From TrEMBL:
Keywords: ATP-binding, Nucleotide-binding, Transport. Residues 5-210 form the ABC transporter domain. GO terms for molecular function: ATP binding. Gene3D superfamilies: P-loop containing nucleotide triphosphate hydrolases (3.40.50.300). Pfam families: ABC_tran (PF00005). The keyword ATP-binding applies. This is ATP-binding cassette domain-containing protein.
């Protein structure tokens, strides 16, 4: 059942320094924005959720997604999608192959996989882009491909790590609206970390400050 992303007395420290203290729930379709300057532990918080926290950090408390304790689950079993400021599309793969990478292994058969990829592209106005080299896409188009690749993996929560910071103002507003609207439609809890106030305002949810 969708219960959202829950932080139970979560703290993350680096040596003697406590970077993060969080005790709250991000419900399905809600957005929590964590704001703080560079080095304040924002990416570290997201690493704790994806299961990629470096051994240099110590975490206490529990993180639950839809009731399930994430501790001990490998990254790929956590059902968490993440978007970064760089899209990290594989440069040696076509747009379609990049999207197919997001598909769950349960979607079998070449035709079925191709159809899912085609539908995902059409959904964001990129029908017919499957054969394109990602390098030939605009920043906004690459951002939409990255969003769709992440959604094809059927995540139960969405994490945004300064995801819009490389887009210029007009495009930034567009891509941001697409991401937040999509998350709301799919009732995904969203945790966004950013140092930009306009990202926090656009999200429209609760804002917390760290650092
Ligand atoms: P932010 O995303 O808010 O800019 P980070 O979460 O990347 O900040 O980093 C928080 C702090 O942890 C910084 O002081 C950074 O230098 C430090 N840090 C990041 N990764 C590591 C690591 N693997 N080992 C030790 N310290 C790290
Ligand atoms: Mg960071």
């Amino acid at each position: 059942m969708a219960e959202g992303l829950r932080f139970e007395h979560v703290t993350i420290s680096l040596g003697p320094e406590r970077l993060i203290a969080l005790d709250c729930t991000v419900g399905p379709g809600e957005v929590l924005t964590v704001m703080g300057p560079s080095g304040s532990g924002k990416s570290t918080l997201l690493a704790a959720i994806t299961g990629t926290l470096d051994a240099a950090f110590a975490m206490t408390g529990r993180i639950r997604l839809d009731g399930h304790d994430l501790a001990g689950l490998p990254t790929e079993a956590r059902r968490v999608g993440i978007l970064f400021q760089d899209e990290y599309l594989f440069p040696h793969l076509s747009v379609g192959a990049n999207l197919a990478f997001g598909l769950k292994p349960g979607v079998t058969g070449r035709a079925a996989r191709r159809a899912r990829v085609g539908a995902a592209l059409a959904e964001v106005g990129l029908a017919g882009f499957a054969e394109r080299d990602p390098a030939t896409l605009s920043g906004g188009q690459r951002a939409r491909v990255a969003l769709q690749r992440m959604l094809l993996s059927e995540p139960r929560a969405l994490l945004l790590d300064e995801a819009f910071s490389k887009l210029d103002t007009g495009l930034r507003a567009q891509v941001r609206a697409l991401v937040f609207d999509t998350a709301r439609q799919r009732a995904l809890p969203v945790l966004q970390v950013t140092h930009d106030h306009s990202d926090a305002e656009a999200a429209g949810g609760e804002v917390m400050t760290v650092g």
